[in-house]
Design goal:
Elements: E1 3-9, H1 16-29, E2 34-40, H2 47-57, E3 61-65, H3 72-82, E4 87-90, H4 102-110, E5 115-120, H5 127-145, E6 157-160, H6 161-164, H7 177-183, E7 188-193, H8 208-226, H9 231-257, H10 268-300
Parallel strand pairs: 1-2, 1-4, 2-3, 5-7
Antiparallel strand pairs: 4-6, 5-6
Helix pairs in contact: 5-8, 9-10
Length: about 325
């Protein structure tokens, strides 16, 4: 078993040496081959120089430099793609995650789980700017996704390599990796981990995080339910608009012939036309989305299902067949 620790880095010059001084003894104590993949996400301070110095000092420390800032999700994705370990452990570079918790996460995977998420039960963050948005975000994600975790925002997690192989992340969706893994049939659990106050640098997270989480959650829910049948979303909304158009038209006719109110005295005729046009556009957009979906799966030979295991199944044709 080999272990890869992946760490996105953005303007953490004051923390990097101490981070490695804390992390390396913990990894050594595991008595397993290990590596640390540090991804410099376009830092503008002296982080790049410190990273190169650390890599020069220990060849098991790998460094990736981005040309410009691409965000935490992209940096985490780069770390996953360049990690070679059987178990991948992402964490933050700000010293708020404790490397001493890594063996706890890995031990949990040895119990048969595929994903173990850290839960910062006692957080040392600003109550209103960090804790409050985090609680709202975690509650929303758990309710919508059906994967009940206390702390989606904690970067300290442990994954078996096969459950995140092929997972593509965009935007700010790194917090949803346990959900993607659960879709693939992974067994997900969590354990309490320590959390330390930030001593150097500054956090870029705030109340706007709730807005990002809500928007990303809409995408995740869409991919979960309708990625294979987008016509259900667009067509359903189109049919709803047709219904609004029909009801508005009937109301306009009723007012015209039974109440003596002319069409031009109400906005109903305009609502009929606009709703009908919107309905047609939504249905057509749904058909285009269906063609795009098939164009993605069929030429690439991508299946719309995932096989976990087989029994007595062999590749190729049946014996005696042509």
């Amino acid at each position: 078993m080999t272990i890869s620790v992946t760490i996105p880095v953005f303007n953490e010059e004051g923390n990097l040496r101490q981070l490695c001084d804390q992390l390396i003894p913990v990894l050594e104590s595991l008595q397993q081959p290990w590596e640390v993949v540090l991804v410099n996400d376009g830092s503008t301070d002296g982080s790049a120089g410190v990273l190169d110095e650390l890599a020069e000092r220990d060849k098991r420390i790998k460094v990736i430099h981005f040309r410009r800032n691409a965000g935490q999700t992209a940096a985490m994705m780069a770390g996953f793609e360049h990690a070679r370990g059987d178990i991948i452990v992402p964490m933050d570079a700000d010293l708020q995650n404790d490397p001493q918790d890594i063996p706890v996460l890995i031990d949990k995977l040895q119990e048969g789980f595929d994903v173990c998420s850290g839960w910062r039960k006692e957080r040392h963050d600003h109550a209103f700017r960090r804790k409050f948005p985090s609680r709202i975000a975690n509650w929303l994600i758990s309710k919508v996704s059906g994967v009940d975790l206390h702390d989606y925002g904690c970067s300290l997690k442990a994954y078996r390599r096969d459950v995140i192989k092929g997972v593509r992340l965009y935007g700010e969706m790194h917090r949803f990796i346990p959900i993607y893994a659960s879709w693939l049939g992974a067994k997900v659990t969590e354990v309490p981990v320590r959390h330390h106050p930030r001593v150097s640098g500054s956090s870029s997270y705030g109340l706007e995080r709730i807005v990002k989480v809500v928007l990303d959650l809409v995408v995740v829910k869409f991919l979960d339910r309708y990625a294979q049948k987008p016509i259900y979303v667009f067509g359903g909304f189109g049919l709803l608009n047709f219904l609004v158009s029909l009801v508005a038209g009937l109301c306009a006719i009723y007012l015209k012939y039974w109440a003596g109110i002319s069409f031009i005295q109400t906005p109903l005729p305009l609502l009929v036309v606009m709703s009908a046009i919107t309905g047609v556009m939504c249905v057509l957009l749904g058909l285009v989305a269906e063609m795009v979906t098939r164009g993605w799966h069929e030429p690439r030979g991508k299946d719309t299902y995932i096989i976990g295991a087989t029994r007595n199944i062999e590749s190729g044709s049946l014996a005696g067949g042509d």
